[in-house]
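quick one before i forget lol
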Amino acid sequence: MNTLLENPLLHPQHPSHFSSGYVNQHSGQYPLNNDYQIEDPRVVRRLVNNLMYLFNIQPGDYLTFVLGYGHCRSNEQALQYWVMDQLTDCPVDQDQVLTVLVDALKEQLNLEVYS
C-alpha cells in the first residue's frame, strides 16, 4: 500500500510544502519520497494538535506539571516538549509514531490518575 495513503500526517499535504522544494525539471513533478522528518517542528506541531484533539486537551497549563514540564506556559508547549522527548528516547517508525505517542500519553496520564 502507498505510504502516502497510510499516514498522511507525516507527508506534505501540498506540493508547496515540500521541505526541499525540489521539482524535477523534466517532468515538473515533485518527488513522492520526500517525507518530512519526524523531528521537523511542523510535524511535531501536527502531532501535538492531534494529541490535543484525541485527548480533548483544552487550553490551560494543567498538563505542564503532569507531564513534568513545569517551566512551560501552556498545555500545548508542554506537549511539544513531551513529544520531542518521546521521539528522542525511542526512535519510532513514521507509520507508528502517532499510535506510539497516544499509547505513551495514555500511560502517562493513567499514572497521574491512579498513583
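fyi The two ends are 42 Å apart (CA to CA).
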